[in-house]
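Structure (tokenized):
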């Protein structure tokens, strides 16, 4: 076994590998750029080596710099994580030349399966059903348009070396094919150092289901069930679960056997993933093989008990798999939600800055375990598990240079319904402040009827949130529960305020029992009957709620029981009430005396400033291109400029017809959110 491993990556996956290496008694080496000097993976590793400036193409994907770090530290093996150099055959060859083990598949497998164009050809030759497409190299945008017409719109334009949604576009017409080709090519070059593009038919209404395979160098290969990854935004996965609520055992077996056969055909050895699209009739089509560890691997680990990172390391050291296919057992259900540094209220645009507060829910263990190749039995009934894979910490910064993922929050339970319920509580318990984040959106998905039913496709977000995410409108019953909780909490805060020292003599402040609670456009008149154990909140017109909690003023997270049901409320200070986040809803809750409520109703509403003649930067980013000039008349939908943020290019278009009167930014300028890019007459 190895004594020292270098992790050629950053963020949560580097931290994840370090945890397993530490468990195995292996020392670890981290690499870092200028932007990651204080990163968590650097703090966790036994050693750390600086490799260059923040941009990945000047640090993390520069093979020579990584090789120098290996020589400097004497690392015997390298785990590449995902992204960056994980599917780069030249990197694997460089390691082999130095006598350093690559914790991943052989070079020939990377070349044949890691390259999406080549893998499609091999799959076709092996008789695997594939999506129609053009697998050859595409010279320019004109050829991309021609090929797209031959295949038939819509088409998917993809980077051959791509992954994580980078270098990927859907085109529905010639103009989008032309634009998509160039943007995909640019993103691919910046993210992977490889700008080759291919085009395939975009299958509408598909489900994205992938099979986890694990092979060794002794000819053994198994599949560890499947993962449902249909909930995606911009072709980037947001929610994953294992197993899939759609597959039956027969289809699972067929997909798994085909995935293993494909892996064995190229001499695969390590963990890998074979991705399929599956239609409504359970027909499945090979998409690609990821010759690396997947982002969403934790859900597979939770239902199988297999530490995939550990098995990758053991295989790289020449070890044999400790299990056979008949040993694999899927236990319970696991769900993963990806927490991103992006603002769902601004069209999910990237958000960067300092994490002024980062408090994930407490992790708990449950589920099956694998020890020395043997499963330790089923998990106790009713138990749940919470797992949070992350690479950040409170006080750390989210950089504009890398992927916006903050953490991967996972829950496990014996059933899907219980796993979803555990995830709802975990999401509500997750505290993140200082940046925009998608916690409210994830909570909304967990409560969405289509997700709960398991009847979703890759078009879920586009279909269910066509105008973007604008928050959640809670049902009246839920509002009443939150109103009752806030009324009881406000009473506790008021009592605290009556006990402040230094009060005027002969002045006593009394806390009343009658209150008016206003939230989400509704108002409730309530009367509070309190005792030592809690409070009973009675609603005028009927309805009574028993509220108990150990919340004290100043706590930013309140766990409250309302009529026996547990509510977790993210709580912030506000005049005459609270700012509450619960189940995807951001609520301004006002708790007033009847007289205060009467006067508040007479106050005029504040009118937002008019920004209709301004193009504001929707995210922190870099201006890549400006497509118009002063005095030019623009039409609705016309390209105005391109902003790059977190390795993704975003084209800003005109919302209406107008004339450009002033341009305040030029290519190369770094802008903050709401900076004015240009003005219109």
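Design, position by position:
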């Amino acid at each position: 076994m190895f004594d020292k491993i270098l992790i050629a990556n950053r963020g949560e996956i580097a931290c994840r590998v370090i945890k397993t290496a530490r468990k195995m008694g292996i020392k670890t080496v981290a690499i870092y750029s200028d932007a990651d000097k204080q990163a968590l993976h650097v703090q966790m590793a036994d050693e750390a080596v600086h490799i260059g400036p923040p941009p990945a193409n000047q640090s993390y994907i520069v093979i020579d710099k990584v090789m120098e770090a290996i020589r400097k530290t004497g690392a015997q093996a390298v785990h590449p994580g995902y992204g960056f150099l994980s599917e780069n055959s030249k990197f694997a060859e460089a390691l082999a030349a130095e006598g350093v083990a690559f914790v991943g598949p052989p070079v020939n497998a990377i070349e044949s399966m890691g390259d999406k164009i080549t893998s499609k050809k091999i799959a076709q030759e092996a008789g695997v059903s594939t999506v129609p497409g053009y697998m050859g190299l595409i010279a320019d945008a004109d050829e991309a348009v021609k090929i797209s017409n031959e295949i038939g719109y819509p088409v998917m334009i993809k980077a051959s070396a791509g992954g994580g949604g980078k270098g990927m576009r859907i085109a529905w017409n010639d103009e989008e094919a032309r634009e998509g080709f160039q943007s995909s090519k640019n993103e691919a070059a910046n993210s992977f150092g490889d700008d080759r593009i291919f085009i395939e038919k975009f299958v509408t209404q598909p489900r994205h289901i992938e099979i986890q395979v694990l092979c060794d160098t002794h000819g053994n290969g198994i599949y560890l069930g499947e993962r449902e990854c249909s909930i995606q935004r911009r072709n980037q996965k947001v929610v994953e679960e294992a197993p899939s609520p759609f597959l039956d055992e027969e289809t699972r077996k067929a997909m798994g056997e085909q995935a293993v056969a494909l892996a064995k055909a190229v001499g695969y050895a390590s963990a890998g993933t074979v991705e399929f699209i599956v239609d409504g009739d359970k027909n499945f089509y090979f998409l690609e093989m990821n010759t690396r560890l997947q982002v969403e691997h934790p859900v597979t680990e939770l239902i199988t008990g297999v530490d995939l990172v550990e098995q990758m390391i053991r295989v790289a050291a020449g070890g044999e798999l400790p299990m056979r296919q008949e040993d694999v057992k899927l236990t319970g259900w696991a769900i993963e939600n990806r927490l991103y540094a992006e603002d769902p209220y601004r069209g999910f645009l990237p958000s960067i800055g300092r994490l002024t507060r980062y408090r994930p829910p407490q992790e708990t263990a449950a589920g099956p375990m694998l020890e020395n190749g043997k499963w330790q039995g089923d998990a106790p009934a009713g138990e749940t598990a919470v797992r949070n894979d992350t690479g950040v910490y409170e006080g750390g910064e989210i950089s504009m240079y890398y992927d916006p993922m903050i953490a991967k929050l996972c829950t496990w339970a014996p059933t899907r319904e219980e796993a979803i319920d555990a995830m709802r509580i975990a999401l509500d318990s997750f505290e993140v402040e200082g940046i925009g984040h998608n916690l409210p959106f994830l909570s909304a998905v967990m409560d969405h009827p289509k997700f709960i039913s398991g009847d979703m496709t890759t078009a879920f977000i586009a279909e269910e949130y066509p105008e973007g995410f604008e928050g959640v409108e809670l049902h009246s019953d839920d509002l009443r529960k939150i109103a009752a909780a806030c009324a009881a909490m406000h009473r506790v805060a008021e009592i605290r305020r009556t006990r402040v020292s230094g009060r005027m003599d002969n002045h006593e402040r009394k806390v009343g029992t009658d209150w008016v609670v206003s939230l989400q456009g509704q108002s409730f008149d309530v009367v509070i009957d309190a005792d030592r154990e809690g409070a009973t909140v009675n609603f005028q017109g009927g309805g009574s709620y028993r509220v108990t909690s150990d919340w004290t003023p100043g706590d930013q997270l309140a766990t409250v029981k309302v009529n026996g049901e547990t509510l977790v409320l993210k709580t912030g200070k506000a005049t005459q009430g609270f700012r509450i986040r619960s189940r995807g809803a951001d609520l301004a809750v006002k708790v007033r005396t009847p007289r205060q409520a009467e006067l508040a109703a007479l106050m005029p509403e504040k009118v937002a400033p008019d920004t209709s003649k301004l193009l504001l930067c929707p995210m922190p980013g870099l201006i890549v291109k400006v497509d118009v000039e002063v005095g030019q008349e623009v039409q609705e939908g016309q390209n105005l400029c391109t902003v790059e943020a977190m390795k993704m290019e975003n084209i800003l278009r005109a919302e209406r017809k107008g004339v450009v009167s002033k341009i305040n930014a030029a290519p190369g300028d770094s802008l903050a959110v709401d900076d004015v890019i240009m003005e219109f007459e």
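Reviewer-requested clarification: Residues 370-377 have pLDDT under 50 and may be disordered. The chain is about 25% helix and 35% strand.
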